[in-house]
Amino acid sequence: MSPWHVRLTIGWVKLIFMSENLLLDLVVAVLAAFCGGLIAERLRLPVVVGYLGAGILIGPFTPGLTVDRHSIELLAEIGVAFLMFAVGTEFSREELRHLGRTGGIGGAIQILGTMGVGLLAGLLLMDVGVSQAVFLGALLALSSTVVALKALMSRGELESPQGRAALGILVAQDIAVVPMIVFLPALGGRTGIQLSQLEVTIGAAALIILVGTLLGTRIVPWLLSHVAIPRTRELFILGVVTLALGTALLTEAIGLSLAFGAFLAGLVIAESDYRAQVVAEALPFRDLFTSLFFVSVGMLVNPAVLVTMPVQVAALSAMAVVGKAVIAMVALLLIKVPGRVALPAGIALAQVGEFSFVLARVGIGKGAIPESFFDLILATSVISVVLSPLLLAAAPAMIRGLTAVPLVGRAFAERPDTGARPEVAGLRRHAVICGGGRVGGELADALHHRNFPYVVVEYNPKVVEELREAGVPALYGDAANVAVLAHVRLTEARLMAALMPHRAAVELAVRHARHLNPKLYIVARASNAAEVRRLRKAGADAVVQPEFEAGVEVIRRALERYGIFGLELDHVVAGRRHAFYSHAAPEQES
Predict the structure, then answer these.
(1) Residues 451 and 374 in one domain
(2) Rounded distance, CA 422 to CA 410, Å?
(3) What is the CATH number of the domain that holds 260?
(4) What does the pLDDT average to over 111-140?
(5) Which helix (H) or strand (E) holds 457?
(6) In sequence order, what are the beta bridge partners of 457?
(7) Which range marks the domain in which residue 532 is found?
(8) Could you tell me the pTM of the whole model?
(9) Residue 209: alpha-carbon gap to chain centroid
């Protein structure tokens, strides 16, 4: 063996066996996060669950390979900074003023209500002081934006009323994180509550905000413009990273938190013309380091807590999932949100997420909460993150059950009639458009210009209001509900287009429509190729798959560029459509 091979072998051996090697720890943590996230994705669980599980496996509390926790925590701090920086970039001053009742009033009720329940839980179950019990309530009050939005997106409900309601409260929670991180450690530290500490904290925060506002309106836009003008992407990225981490370190040096400084830097960027590009450049850093943050949290989880304190873990998990969902639902009901919207929105918020981890890390670092207390929160977080998406899938069944309950049933009953009777009355040989999105809007516009009668059925009250203001006959209701379809005189209709984003709702609407009017022509939108067959079996006469149709149009434009026109081009396009849709056609019955 040559000396070069010997040196190379020794180098690899050193790399493998040096436990404090940052590069090795990083590679192991990233590999574990990748494997854990992949397994969670295959099991249709949030990838956050996979990251947490990966951290538990490579953590000090489980046998086998162990990664140096401090190395990963260092990288996780960067993840916290970029996470808060990304949140800050989403909120300009104008957007903060337009949170509306859902985020402002509903969010405040949910946060304060959950904190009150957490306070009682801490005093009765945890045997801790008032300040630590308040900290517990704050940890329970914050939901996982990542888990909630991913669950809603997977069900096609992000743009639905429940999706928007949940998003409004999530925005309120994101904003509430900042004062929590600033004030809660000062209120709950080991040294007790001291007025001088609060004065210094408030003064420093005010000074940083003032300086940040001046920088954001004058200096930062000027610097970014001079970096962006030469189109040197590397300098632009370096400028973004310097601003995010530099501001975070500055606030930490003053005595505030790293996360607060990063959030402030994001707010500065949100006011500049380069906001979109900054967000685009920061997202890869945020995603990478945030995954490491979840791994680092998993490394802190001690599975033995589930055995030594099962009662406390079960009680906190029940409060985080059931109690929090109920509180969020009641908060939305109080601001006149329909029960059919409030329930799934509340369930979407029923977990303890990433900002709770950030707040907990700050609390344990400042001595505001003990190590055992932190272990309980982490175990609760893992359980709630796993259960929340499963409960969201059961929300429709819960609504049906609550509708049949006396007293409370009225709040969850379908309310198809919102004053649209004059628009529906007298309709005959008309088209029923289920879904007022972009595709539905295009169809409505085409029918309007040819004076064909039609009505739009939409589940989002804001969209219904906008359509009516534009002179479009619109009805609020869930097209998957047979009573709503009957209300739009489906038995007299000539055509129905099921264009809702939710796959299950489209299939139900098709089945109900076919039952109400066997002669009705039904066209439905499929989310993927597998749904084409299912929708045809449900009774759709025609099924359209948007992504495939977009691909056909790309083929058409490309072949025209190569000089293929007329009948030859039409033959190619027709052949592609026939091959796709005939392959998904239902089998002929013998």
Answers:
(1) no
(2) 25
(3) 1.20.1530.20
(4) 87
(5) strand 454-458
(6) 434, 475
(7) 421-544
(8) 0.60
(9) 28
